[in-house]
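Schema walk-through. Below, the input block comes first and the output block second. Nothing else is stored per chain. Lengths vary across the set, and this one has 113 residues.
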Amino acid sequence: MSCLNYQKVWEVMSELEDKFNNITTITGLVKFIDEAVEKNNQDEIRSGVDALKSYMKVFISEYDTASKRAWNNTVVALKQHPHESDYSYEIKKPTYEEVEEFFTNVDEGVGVV
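--- output ---
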């Protein structure tokens, strides 16, 4: 049984994708600026750069919010309820003797390299 709600995960990941897809606006602004540079049109260059600077603040803020929301509703949710997750596992810490044996075997060409 999973601690994740499918609908919630779908919602937050979809929102994250939507916010990321806003990068197409950045691509359009860069194209606008590039064309202005080719025409040596200083007014359009300044206008494009100003627009890009303004948009980047909004884009980064929205993407940051969506990213944190997605992270909290997936990774953090799984960590808070690892016993409920189908994907939980525990990593066994090796003993000193096991580490020593591993490196001895590696030195002798027996261990996994």
